[in-house]
């Protein structure tokens, strides 16, 4: 029976390969047909190698290859395959599990559509037999006992077989064949006439021609015929047979295989094809997805050589897909307009398309139709022009071309008409999705930091992935906020929901947290203020948040958590832990909520990871399992490249229902630690003089000489402005980090200094800030705890030694505290 099935599929050799126990290769378990060595089939295929069998197994898609196509695989292909043979490799899988491959060698230059359909159904049944055998035997797939999987699979395809002895006219038919022609087994007498009595009279001449004396020849024949069932309805059957000869070549017997045509050609039916295409287009979200579905659905089933899909934009056709994608496969006018990934062609250069699009009707052009040069080069054997209608207008066109002469059957015309309508609607829907995606991306980029700041003593990287469903903008955010005195704030959060409202709240909360942090508030106060702000906004949305302030000089970190997943640490030795931060409620729930502060010391080489729940939690993955997975990836990854480390933590998130944010900081510690000195300025008549003296002593101790006068002038101007224009305490702080000297003067007034627009030459004041700006590499003002701090940075030349000059107001490496003027 297996031999007859091979005749039905026009196969010279059929083989089954199953996955080895170690999962490294596909091993041969069964063959049927000619000698395996004659066609170069090996006993195994390594999955790591290049071959059509390995490709079919990895991709889960059938591979149909001619001997010429096999040549591209080089040594991994069947080198012994004759030039007039073809190879088919079909994956075998069940319940999402890949079991092996069915390999078929075909004596010809390719498999036709019906042969491919039969073999795909045959492969499905073989996979079912392999799965059943593995379950029964408890071993590897393919161990199904003495019954061959190639043979037993046919029993489930409703395929019957028979053997006809030509000299006697006696026929031996199996139970499947008798069931197909509606004959009870006990009522069959072994005569051909009994079978033919059930055949529709119009189909008898075709059946009898197979065994006519003048037509007998060794080889294969196939045809379709009908039988009339007892209820009067017709059933289409397909017969494939092979005539075998005796020792001298005289025809002796006929081996036949009969199958229900509806089983053999499920995709040949117009409704079935349209249903499959509709289902595929329903899952196509973007224009690129629609283009891929159309090319796959049309080119191979129709035997076409080229498929092009284009959108209509004004007076130009903008191509969205070309198959094959090589420019050389398309007309010269297309190649001349190939300025990007796909060309866009002026429609006036293609009058045939222009007419079809204007009329909105499908145009099927036979060979020799006199096409213009812009189309003739792509369809010597025939061209189908399918305008794509949607919402009362034509939005694009699909072109299907053949090199060999092609006849358009009525079924094919119906299929192309239905395809055009489906593709047009899908293209419009994909356009709307792409526009929504672009809007969401633009909104998300405007709300998240464009780049993270460079940090002294550490490297920060971030990743954000939008959700795959709905509006691709959510409430996840992150931020890195540089703070004075070598501190930095890291924040990550998640606003409830995926909507423009959630994105708006996210932007407001991120801005508020940054403002509170820059003002100099400790982490718990920053979160408390942000919580009250969100409560006062009277929104139904809430937000979770994790906030960390890190001293980049000392490695001290202070954590606050508001309903958010805990931060993770990777220590220099590779071990990981969840930071035990006492959590508070989410922001926006309780106005008087309190948030505990947790202090942790970080050693150089430590990696801090802040993440949102989309990375560690889903409907199928509990939070604990997700955190365990991320910790494992964090421990195994190489922290030397922070970007690759972040990518490795994301893992496989190709299908995600929630957006994902990840913020990493690798703390390296400062190689050059800044030195500081501070001075509390009393409001005395000679306060500026004392401030200058303190600054001069400090600069001498720090071996700063060349720029001393410039720094003293900046100190004079900033201290004078603070004493004249504010009330309350004033403080002067000096910080030397590398070649940058920072002068900072703090006061209790929240008003920022205003640089004068115009200073008259007779004016006695107003030039202070202009002088500061001229002498500073950078300067500015930041709010600090109800007041402000005006700062200036000056590039200096230092001659530092290990021991600073003793007896001055500053000491290297530590804050000298407050020095009060006498």
CATH topology title of the largest domain: Phosphatase 2c, domain 1
Number of domains as seen in the coordinates? 5
Distance, first to last CA? 112 Å
CATH architecture of the largest domain: 4-Layer Sandwich
Task: Evaluate the radius of gyration.
Answer: 40 Å
Average pLDDT figure: 79
Spatial order of the strands forming the largest sheet: 3-2-1-6-5-4
Q: Which structural class best describes the helix and strand composition? A: alpha+beta
User: What portion of the residues fall into strands of 2 or more residues?
Assistant: 25-35%
CATH superfamily grouping of the largest domain? PPM-type phosphatase domain
Question: Level of helix content?
Answer: 25-40%
Overall shape: elongated
Largest sheet: 6 strands, antiparallel
Quantity of strands, as a count: 34
The total count of helices amounts to 23
Provide the low-confidence segments as ranges. Answer: 142-146, 263-268, 802-822
**CATH class designation of the largest domain:** Alpha Beta
């Amino acid at each position: 029976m297996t031999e007859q099935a091979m005749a039905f599929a026009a196969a010279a050799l059929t083989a089954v390969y199953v996955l080895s126990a170690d999962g490294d290769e596909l091993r041969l378990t069964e063959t049927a047909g000619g000698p395996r060595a004659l066609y170069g089939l090996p006993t195994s295929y390594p999955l790591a190698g290049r071959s059509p069998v390995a490709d079919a197994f990895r991709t889960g898609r059938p591979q149909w290859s001619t001997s010429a196509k096999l040549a591209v695989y080089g040594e991994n292909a069947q080198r012994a395959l004759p030039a007039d043979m073809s190879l088919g490799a079909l994956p075998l899988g069940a319940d999402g599990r890949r079991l092996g491959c069915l390999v078929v060698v075909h004596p010809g230059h390719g498999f036709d559509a019906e042969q491919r359909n039969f073999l795909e159904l045959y492969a499905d049944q073989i996979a079912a037999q392999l799965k059943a055998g593995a379950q029964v035997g408890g071993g590897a797939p393919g161990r199904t006992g003495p019954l061959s999987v190639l043979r037993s699979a046919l029993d489930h395809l409703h395929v019957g077989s028979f053997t006809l002895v030509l000299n006697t006219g006696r026929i031996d038919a199996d139970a499947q064949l008798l069931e197909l022609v509606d004959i009870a087994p006990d009522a069959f007498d072994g005569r051909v006439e009994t079978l033919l009595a059930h055949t529709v009279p119009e189909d008898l001449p075709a059946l009898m021609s197979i065994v006519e004396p003048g037509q007998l020849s060794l080889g294969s024949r196939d045809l379709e015929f009908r039988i009339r069932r007892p209820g009067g309805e017709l059933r289409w059957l397909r017969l494939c047979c092979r005539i075998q000869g005796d020792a001298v070549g005289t025809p002796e017997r006929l081996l036949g295989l009969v199958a229900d045509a509806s089983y053999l050609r499920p995709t040949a039916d117009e409704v079935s094809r349209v249903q499959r295409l509709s289902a595929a287009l329903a899952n196509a979200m973007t224009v690129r997805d629609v283009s891929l579905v159309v090319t796959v659905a049309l080119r191979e089933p129709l035997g076409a050589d080229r498929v092009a899909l284009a959108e209509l934009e004004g007076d130009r056709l903008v191509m969205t897909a070309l198959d094959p994608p090589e420019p050389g496969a398309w007309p010269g006018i297309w190649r001349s307009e190939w300025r990007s990934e796909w060309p866009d062609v002026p429609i006036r250069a293609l009058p045939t398309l222009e007419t079809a699009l204007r009329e909105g009707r499908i145009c099927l052009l036979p060979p020799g139709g006199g096409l213009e040069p812009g189309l003739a080069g792509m369809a010597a054997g025939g061209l189908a022009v399918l305008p794509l209608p949607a919402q009362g207008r034509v939005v694009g066109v699909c072109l299907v071309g053949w090199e060999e002469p092609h006849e358009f059957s009525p079924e094919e015309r119906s299929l192309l008409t239905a395809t055009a309508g489906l593709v047009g609607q899908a293209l419009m829907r994909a356009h709307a999705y792409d526009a929504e995606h672009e809007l969401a991306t633009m909104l998300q980029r405007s709300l998240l930091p464009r780049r993270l700041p460079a940090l002294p003593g550490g490297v920060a990287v971030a990743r954000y992935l939008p959700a795959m469903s709905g509006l691709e903008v959510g409430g996840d955010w992150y931020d890195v906020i540089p703070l004075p005195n070598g501190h930095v704030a890291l924040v990550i959060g998640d606003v409830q929901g995926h909507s423009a409202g959630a994105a708006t709240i996210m932007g407001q909360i991120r801005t508020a947290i940054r403002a509170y942090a820059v003002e100099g508030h400790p982490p718990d106060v920053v979160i408390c203020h942000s919580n009250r702000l969100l409560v006062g906004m009277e929104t139904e949305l809430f937000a979770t948040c994790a906030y960390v302030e890190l001293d980049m000089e000392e490695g001290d970190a202070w954590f606050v958590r508001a309903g958010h997943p805990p931060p993770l640490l990777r220590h220099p030795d590779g071990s990981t832990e969840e930071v035990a931060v006492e959590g508070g409620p989410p922001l926006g729930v309780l106005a008087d909520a309190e948030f505990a502060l947790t202090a942790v010391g970080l050693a150089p080489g430590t990696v801090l990871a802040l993440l949102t729940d989309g990375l560690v939690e889903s409907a199928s993955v509990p939070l604990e399992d997700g955190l365990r997975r991320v910790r494992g990836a964090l421990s195994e990854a190489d922290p030397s490249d922070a970007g690759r480390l972040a990518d490795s933590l994301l893992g496989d998130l190709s299908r995600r229902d929630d957006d994902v944010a990840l913020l990493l900081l690798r703390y390296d510690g400062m190689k050059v630690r800044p030195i500081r000195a501070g001075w509390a300025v009393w409001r005395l008549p000679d306060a500026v003089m004392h401030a200058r003296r303190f600054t001069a002593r400090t600069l001498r101790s720090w071996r700063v000489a060349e720029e001393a006068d410039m720094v003293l002038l900046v100190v004079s101007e900033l201290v004078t402005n603070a004493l004249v224009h504010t009330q309350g305490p004033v403080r002067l702080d000096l910080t030397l980090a590398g070649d940058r000297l920072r002068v900072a003067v703090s006061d209790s007034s929240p008003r920022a200094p205003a640089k004068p627009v115009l200073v008259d030459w007779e004016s006695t004041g107003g030039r202070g800030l202009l002088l500061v700006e001229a002498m500073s590499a950078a300067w500015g003002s930041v709010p600090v705890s109800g007041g402000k701090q005006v700062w200036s940075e000056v590039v200096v030349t230092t001659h530092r030694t290990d021991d600073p000059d003793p007896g001055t107001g500053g000491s290297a490496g530590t804050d000298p505290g407050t020095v009060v003027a006498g």
